[in-house]
Inverse folding.
């Protein structure tokens, strides 16, 4: 359908062509001897209006009412000009073939259904306009991501999903193990039982990996190993966090894009984040016009203007210390009190981008070291680290990044200070022993980018199958 209607002439250039159209019935309107079937194949937002006359082969299926919303059809016919105001061309059908019937219980009928309801139908929601458009936009953003990094000489690295290290040190990891208790209520008798040592502790030597292993929270540490060999690299893959946050911005499984730049400092990192974000935003504005118009009309009014502004405008930069000053001077009453050393809450982030800087992305840098991860490079003041967060309106934190501590003695001291086990970071410390270089990188939550680009306010609606506390169906 995109092939036919996506051109500059909206299909008029294809008048008279004989074609086959395959797709799913969105609506069906029967008149006396003529039936209009709106068919969508997911290639674009537009449906194809298919006109079936009583002389079409297979018309009996139309007449008997066996073709209903949700059914899949294959139709032969010709492109003709349309009398309707909605489209320039329509499909005059000569033969209808039912591919798969749809039971009358098909839950997505013409009337509008809420996104909350559709979350319970995650297997069928891609058949709606909104979720079809989100899926295509997500695809375009992923493509633009690879395009941006490839054009700029970055090498894509596959970071592991199973790992023994906790990059963020926040203890929010899911454990991966073959040790399963044998007396759990409601589970069938498992293959393994949990072996205990004499002291009564879990005997991890009997586990598949021989020690606790986890789903990765970030591919950064692995990306650093490749950046200190291949120069600029990036990862793009799933990451996992067992944080019990039931918010519209948190998922237990989300995709992260993590570039890592060698011979680079925090300024290079911020420049890369800005160029990347502007590139992908421009890409979807230029290449996803139909879907963007849909979001602009139905999801967030004015989103096209807002994204166009972001694509051109210089981002605001300020230090954490200045951001705290700004919040302290704000007339607004915050639920979480503000003072130097506190982590910024989403109400603070929203105030900064939405009110203080009226819709412009803001990069905050040089955070107190106490609220940031162990690997960030200490600034000369001894109190802050070379960290940056990029905040955007409505979504809040879209990117978190930093210059990494490349000095062995500083890194070891920081691990000691945080009482982290230096032994388990031996390979990470090695990078500082053998040809260490200043390097920096960031992580961008891909779903938050999709939220930002579509205007959808709940993160559960921008990933096909959301994983959140208490919910792992489909
Ligand atoms: O700020 P975070 O925790 O940074 C890191 O993981 C670094 N290791 C990244 C790096 O420097 N390579 O996470 C990065 C981004 C956040 O800014 C946010 O967009 C997203 O990942 N994110 C989440 N997205 C959805 N659900 C969650 N639970 C998320 N946690 C973080
Ligand atoms: Mg962060």
């Amino acid at each position: 359908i995109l092939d036919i209607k996506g051109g500059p002439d909206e299909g008029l250039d294809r008048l008279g062509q004989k074609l086959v159209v395959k797709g799913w019935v969105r609506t069906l309107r029967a008149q006396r001897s003529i039936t209009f079937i709106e068919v969508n194949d997911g290639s674009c937002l537009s449906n194809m209006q298919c006109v079936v006359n009583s002389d079409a082969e297979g018309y009996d299926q139309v007449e008997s009412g066996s073709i209903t919303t949700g059914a899949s059809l294959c139709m032969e016919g010709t492109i003709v000009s349309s009398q309707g105001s909605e489209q320039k061309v329509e499909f005059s059908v000569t033969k209808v073939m039912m591919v798969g019937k749809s039971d009358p219980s098909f839950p997505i009928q013409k009337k509008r259904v809420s996104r909350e309801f559709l979350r319970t139908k995650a297997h069928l929601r891609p058949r709606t306009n909104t979720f079809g458009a989100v899926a295509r936009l997500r695809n375009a953003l992923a493509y633009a991501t690879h395009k941006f990094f490839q054009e700029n000489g970055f090498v894509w690295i596959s970071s592991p999903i199973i790992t023994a290290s906790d990059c963020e040190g926040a203890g929010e990891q899911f454990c991966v193990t073959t040790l399963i208790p044998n007396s759990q209520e409601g589970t069938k008798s498992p293959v393994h039982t949990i072996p205990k040592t004499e002291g009564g502790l879990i005997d991890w030597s009997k586990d598949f990996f021989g020690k606790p292993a986890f789903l990765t929270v970030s591919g950064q540490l692995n990306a650093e190993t490749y950046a200190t060999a291949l120069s600029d690299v990036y990862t793009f893959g799933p990451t996992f966090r067992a944080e019990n946050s039931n918010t519209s911005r948190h998922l237990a499984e989300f995709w992260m894009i993590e570039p890592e730049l060698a011979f680079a400092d925090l300024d290079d990192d911020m420049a890369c984040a800005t160029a990347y974000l502007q590139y992908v935003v421009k890409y979807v504005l230029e290449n996803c016009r139909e879907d963007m118009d849909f979001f602009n009309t139905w999801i967030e009014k004015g989103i096209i203007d807002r994204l166009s502004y972001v694509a051109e405008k210089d981002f605001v930069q300020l230090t954490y210390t200045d951001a705290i000053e700004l919040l302290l001077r704000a007339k607004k009453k915050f639920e979480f009190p503000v003072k130097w050393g506190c982590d910024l809450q989403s109400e603070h982030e929203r105030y900064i981008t939405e009110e203080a800087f009226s819709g412009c992305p803001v990069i905050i840098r040089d955070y107190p070291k106490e609220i940031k991860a162990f690997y960030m490079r200490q600034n000369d003041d001894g109190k802050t680290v070379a960290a940056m967060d990029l905040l955007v309106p409505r979504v809040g934190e879209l990117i978190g990044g930093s210059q990494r501590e490349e000095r062995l003695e500083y890194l070891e001291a920081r691990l000691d200070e945080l009482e982290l086990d230096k032994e388990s970071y031996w390979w990470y410390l090695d990078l500082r022993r053998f040809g260490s270089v200043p390097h920096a990188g960031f992580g961008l939550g891909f779903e938050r980018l999709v939220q930002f680009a579509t205007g959808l306010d709940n993160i559960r609606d921008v990933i096909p199958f959301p994983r959140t506390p208490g919910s792992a169906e489909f």
